Amino acid sequence: MRPAADAGRTGGRSAAPVSARAAASQERDRADHEAAAERLCIACELHDGIAHSMNVNSVQAGFGRLMLDDRPQDARSALEVIETTGRETLVELRRLLGVLRADTDDADLAPPRSSPT
Q1: How do the pLDDT tens digits run along the chain, 117 residues long?
Q2: 3-state class of 21 per DSSP?
């Protein structure tokens, strides 16, 4: 009499497919959670790098402006720091974006390549 009661609860289907569907759903949820955590980590890394560079450039630009008339060599040095910091930040951003692009097969996600000038 017990099998009939069990069949009524599962709609006549065995419990194994339900368990497999639940396991697959849990695996998708786990993968989604891991992907979201990775996106958060990448966003934090991007923010930290860009924020630091913007801070350095802002301080150096202010210093250069103050030194421009009286100490032009110091102003020139500040401009060199701004240039170097900007270039290094762009290299790091390209590196990180390259890693992200390597993880996807979807070419539509990549921005168009600019032509050399």
Answers
A1: 555 555 445 555 556 677 989 889 999 999 999 988 988 888 898 999 999 999 999 999 999 999 999 999 999 999 999 999 999 999 999 988 888 888 665 555 555 556 554
A2: helix
Question: Exposed, middle or buried, 93 (CB in 10 Å: 0-12/13-18/19+)?
Answer: middle
Query: What is the Cα–Cα distance from 82 to 84, expressed in whole angstroms?
Result: 6
Residue 113 has φ and ψ, to the nearest 5°, of -75, 135
- What burial class does residue 78 get, using C-beta atoms within 10 Å of its C-beta: 0-12 exposed, 13-18 middle, 19+ buried? buried
CA distance linking residue 52 with residue 44, whole number of Å: 12
Q: Measure the CA–CA gap between 105 and 96, rounded to whole angstroms.
A: 16
Of 99, 97, 88, 77, nearest to 50 by C-alpha is 88
DSSP state of 107: G
84 close to 95: Cβ distance less than 8 angstroms: no
- Report domain 23-101's class: mainly alpha
Give the residue extent of every domain in the chain.
Answer: 23-101
